Amino acid sequence: MRSKTGESGGKALARAGGSPLAGTPAPSPAGAAEGKNCAGASVQRQAPTVYGALDLGTNNCRLLVAKPSRRGFVVIDAFSRIIRLGEGVSNSGELSNDAMKRTIDALRVCSDKMRRRGVTRSRLIATEACRIATNGAEFIDRVENETGLKLEIVGRETEAKLAVSGCASLLDRKCDWALVFDIGGGSSELIWLDLSRLDRQWRRSVHDRVDVQNCVAAWTSLPIGVVSLAERHGGRDVSDESYEAMVDDVMLGLESFESQHRFGERIARANAHFLGTSGTVTTISGIHLKLPHYERSRVDGCWLTAGDVRRVSKDLIAMSYAERVAQPCIGHERADLVLAGCAILEALLRVWPCQRLRVADRGLREGILTTLMAEDGHERRGISPRPRRRRGGAKSKSGRG
């Protein structure tokens, strides 16, 4: 359910004076910014809506708070914490008390940030861990009672679409095919896009507000993520043999999807690339770039080759757990999961041999924000409209008619 803050911002926002009609800018002076018209008379301009997007995954809790801008949106606050909500759920079928407590602590921080920033429109989603846990719905109710946040457990198709929307601006539209993938903690979303369905004449002028949903050729949600794979095979001490066992598991999970759609054959003589949005690809990128500390500005949008990915993976397999912890782009919170992510990516490269991978440090939250703002009529100024022809058929020089 897409909701306004009176619903999804919850009680914490309501206590702070959030309007029950939070998606509608307040008509009173308190909800508007005062300005002057060209004659000097006072006019009332409605303050821009403040948007919130929260992604509660199997491993991470992430929040973005943003305002619309001429170039899309400007982030005014953010939060990210590894909470491992899905720890053990693949074996027990339930969210553990410790995992739920860690998550609620993080969600209280998110609720406070949304309240302080005056979020007026939001969407708060929970994914695989809450989808598969027998006590997932009970946990969602507990979250609302303890933090005031009303989370929505989304289906896998919705998650896949949001992932595509969040990183669509990084697609190479000169390609014919692109695989967008999001390696999560409990599942991995895979979306093949047929970019030839875009109007080729306008590929260079279309930016990230283009609706790429009509380019989706097929998608699947693989019920394998870094947490579940590491719990099955071990993540701290990984040998060449155990790494290959992880890769084999993932390739087995892909067999049915590939036999049905045969994308390997489709891309064999086509121009195709991968676009990855997950902690796995951003970590690999940071290590490949030899960053002394993680820098989003250098990672987001960068290109890697398949050889780059495999060199980093090979180096990580050769490291001990302590050596992986010491890597500045990994740390102790990811050191037991990073090789499971590498194994998932290696399986994708073996099933669909692409030589180029683009890295996206963006995903579901950006997809939520983009979708909400589009619904409210905020269009990116960077999109070039189709030029209209003058009467008589001649185009104007400006291309705008």
Verbal overview:
The protein has 401 residues and is of the alpha/beta class. 39% of the residues lie in helices and 20% in strands. The chain is built from 15 helices and 14 strands. It has helices spanning 5-15, 89-92, 97-117, 128-132, 136-147, 156-167, 226-233, 240-261, 263-267, 279-288, 296-299, 306-318, 321-325, 338-351, 364-375; strands spanning 3-4, 32-36, 42-46, 51-56, 60-69, 72-82, 121-126, 152-153, 177-183, 188-194, 216-222, 272-276, 303-305, 356-359. The strands form three sheets. Strands 1, 4, 5, 6, 7 and 8 form a six-stranded mixed β-sheet that branches. A hairpin with a 4-residue loop joins strand 9 (177-183) and strand 10 (188-194). Helix 6 (156-167) crosses helix 15, helix 10 (279-288) crosses helix 12 and helix 10 crosses helix 14. The longest helix is centred in the middle third of the chain and has 22 residues, at 240-261. Residues 1-45, 201-210 and 381-401 have low confidence and may be disordered.
